[in-house]
Amino acid sequence: MGKTKQQRQRDDNVRPHSFELLEEQNLHEGNDIISNLPEDVLHHILSFLSTKDAIRTSILSTKWEYLWTSIANIDLKETYHQAGKKEDGSFLDFVDRVLIFHDASEIKSLSLESHELVNSSRVNSWISASIRHNIKELKLCLHWKTQPVLPCRLFTCQSLVVLKLSMDWALEVTSLTRFLNLKTLELKYVTFSDNSTQHLFSSCPMLQELALVYCGSKNLKTITICIPTLKGMSSVVTKIYAANLIHLHCISCQIIDFCLYDLSSLVDASICLYEEPEEVVTPRVLRLLTGIFNVKKLTITIVTLEGFDSCDEDDWKFGRAPSCFASSLKTVHIAHFDKKPIEMRFIRFLLKKARVLERLTLHMWSLRRDSEEDVKQQQKVSNQLNKLPRRSKGCVIELFQAEPVFF
Description:
Radius of gyration: 29 Å
Helix content: 25-40%
Shape: globular
Structural class: alpha/beta
Oligomer: single chain
């Protein structure tokens, strides 16, 4: 016969009490409920911990002792402060042990950052270990004792999707380089020394994101990048061919002459060209602006504009205004606005020429942010800006004190 309503209610009241008794019994008997979970659940728990914390779980119990050896994402960073306390290579030894004891499962990502000096052979052993585990994402930010010689197998690794290298040395690229599946490449502080570098860019048929940050060239006058699949770029190069480029983030000294070709898909661009003394760079900056002819959103620093000479804006040698001013540019952000004459000249020129501009945002920097004096000064400048004539009648001009980090 079925249970009556009263019996079912009694059973429901008993269950919580029974669970509490079971929990108390497990604690009393020293049972570890979490450790009894399925192993895939435990691995999922470890995925939420930092690499060092995941390794520390090995002391919890016998069940946890070797769980960390199958973690898929290894992220080990040593701060400059930590490196200064010890110069015994202990962090590098720790990296060695983590990779040596890793089991046969895949390593999806390996990110290493250290301020200790490291030699090529050691790094090569790390790279080789990660490749054996079908590495997908590799990021190395290291300080080398001597000119690094990276293993050839790195440049032919077919499992790599993301590669990020930070190294204050010349990059030597093997002629066998072929990254068939690489979609993101980031190089920082790298010096391009020969034409093999050109081969690097042409050997990434699937590349979508490219960042060249504070890079330079030793014997190269021109670096040409021709990647049809490219969708995002941070660069310091001179010639760029990228029909599918969507985002351009450019940081460079102003002496570099940029030539941009076929950027018809570009949507937004951020430009920071820091000043080189005694350089007349107006034509170079303008050519860069002209090259981003289809952009809808532009972020530019005032340091970039300081490269312009002191002539009146009507005398600037544009030949004509960048076509994006007339056809597509809807949003402009100007960072580090300081009310200098050159800044005001550029703003007047922009407002005269930009036909579809919807919003101009300027960000001021103040050490006494929100002080009464600064608020009054901001209001005064805002009134001056709003009186400027503009081609786009619906354009809104905004002035902020809070300084965003664009670069």
